[in-house]
Amino acid sequence: MRIFILALDGLEYTLVEKWQLEHLQQADYGVYPTIKSQKYKQAYTPKMWSTIITGKTLEQHGVNEWWTYGKLDKLRNVLPLGEKGKYMLMKLLGFLGVKPRLKVVDCPTMFDAVKPSVALDIPGYNERIEPRIKLNDALMKHGLKAYENTAWKIYAERVNHTFVALTKPWRLFMTYFSIADTLGHAFISKHINKLKQVYYKLNFLAWKLKTLTEDGSTLFMILSDHGMKPAADGTGVHTDYGYLSMNMQGLLPKQGTVWQILPTQFYAFITSLLKVGGKP
After folding, report:
1. I need a labelling partner for 90 at 20 to 30 A (CA). Which of 49, 68, 76, 216 fits?
2. Of 73, 43, 71, which is closest to residue 58 (Cα–Cα)?
3. C-alpha 16, offset from chain centre
């Protein structure tokens, strides 16, 4: 058996169902409970993906933010700054030669347990920091349209990287796309048709990747770290459930639409299917 994981940040169950996106739904689909960040009061992306790939809690894997400035983190956290203030501080630190680095897990991952593995842009593991800086710059300097255009460029780059990496040998392959989250925050409340375009693109991507990896024994998983719902301020906010679909049935128990699996249990589920031991 091989396992391919299409990691789609912020993919929302109700929208997949509403638009009947069969390649995102697959043979069986539903939701699972997420873990809330105490700081942000909702499922938080770097924490969630770090938990999924390690089977560990925040206290064990150590990832609670996208990036770190080392000892300067304490200063950034105590200053009463809004989003624009944080952005300006980041640019100031960059001007002074202090650059952020990606916050990565402090423990082994499923990619260490399964060989050979391919992991592309996974938060908490090897995601490149430059695309997120480009998104911040686009929004803060040029506005929403530039932010949207930048999100699509990053998406296209990651699609190309994924197709190229498929030529490598692998038993476990995981590739990450942030566009459903990036544009979900911007469009779910007021521009749903723009978000619909995102979901249709992802539906096509899922079909294409399944076509290229299908061999009768490859488990194709589509996984999100949380969903997305409209917020009172006209943007989008994370839900307390993630999305999971599989091209095979009967691998996990399910009650109604809810998979009986926790974020800390994906490591054991995946590694046990690949017969490399179930304990993280």
Report:
1. 49
2. 43
3. 16
